[in-house]
Amino acid sequence: MEILGIDIGGSGIKGAPVDTKQGTMVADRYRIPTPHGAKPHDVAEVVGRIAKHFDWKGPIGAGFPAVIQGGVARTAANVDKGWIGTHAEDLLSNATGCPVRVLNDADVAGIGEMRFGAGSGRQGVVFIITIGTGLGTAVFTNGVLVPNTELGHIEMDCQDAEWQAADSARQREGLKWREWAVRFDRYLNRLHDLFWPDLFILGGGASKKMEKFADILTVPTELVPAQLLNEAGIIGAAVAAESLVPDL
Ligand code: BGC
Which among 12, 86, 95 has a CA at the least distance from the CA of 51? Predict the structure, then answer.
């Protein structure tokens, strides 16, 4: 079964057709920079261009950086506030002429990692943390997703944890990897103390640099880098849209 997976991010919107049984992209991914401000109709227009690029006529899955309930965006931490209350699935269906499933971006990356990557076959409580502009979290218990956990926004030192420990904080403050990692480690220890996960999977851009800071981390939880890296969002989004196909 091939489904078009789309990863909507702060800097780029990327898509590729995915074989959801194999967990592989079946064509080169196509990327268009996110329109300035990431307003709903501008983003939808870009998603429409990506579908057109692949001459796509089938189901589409998309990951979006917000809480998504029943296809509706409920938050907008790092995108235009006009998304709040927008029916993202209807908007993107209209833009592409295809049925679309939209889920939170960290949730779809987690779905990809659990099915085909570092979480494959793992039972217990698994946290996927995506480290980018935002801090995204996806929580699985015995392989089942608890959707829309927004644990990047827990309080740390009277501030939003994301503001201190996302990759955007490292860039904004010009921190060395090891300086940033001290903060990120405090964040992981907070999650450990509150949830006692069995496994942390680190995804997003920063996870590719893990060799630069892994020795700083003191959290006692087993911790591994994501395996699908750039592709987790696209592959997971496609897998999440399998439910649009009735006979699968
Ligand atoms: C948002 C989450 C999102 C994460 C990663 C956070 O700021 O609140 O919904 O998953 O960023 O993009």
Answer: 95
> Which among 153, 214, 143 has a CA at the least distance from the CA of 178?
214
The separation between CA 231 and the C-alpha centre of its own chain, rounded to angstroms, equals 10
pLDDT on residue 247: 65
**Ranges of the chain whose pLDDT falls below 50:** none
Ligand 1: list residues with CB < 6 Å: 65-67, 75, 77-78, 104-106, 130, 132, 134, 136, 150, 152, 162
Query: Contact 127/199 with Cβ under 8 angstroms?
Result: yes
- Residues 217-243 have pLDDT tens digits of 999 999 999 999 889 999 999 999 998
Say how many Å lie between the CA of residue 81 and the centre of ligand 1.
13
* Chain segment 165-207, per-residue pLDDT in tens: 999 999 999 999 999 999 999 999 999 999 999 999 999 988 8
Alpha carbon of 95 to ligand 1 centroid (Å): 23
Residue ranges and CATH numbers for the domains of the chain are: 2-104+231-244 (3.30.420.40), 118-226 (3.30.420.40)
Q: Which helix (H) or strand (E) is 114 found in, with range?
A: helix 105-116
Q: pTM of the full predicted structure? A: 0.97
Ligand 1 pocket check: which of 75, 80, 150 to mutate, most ligand atoms within 8 Å of Cβ?
Answer: 150
| Closest CA to ligand 1's atom 12 | 65
Q: How many CB atoms lie within 10 A of CB 243?
A: 11
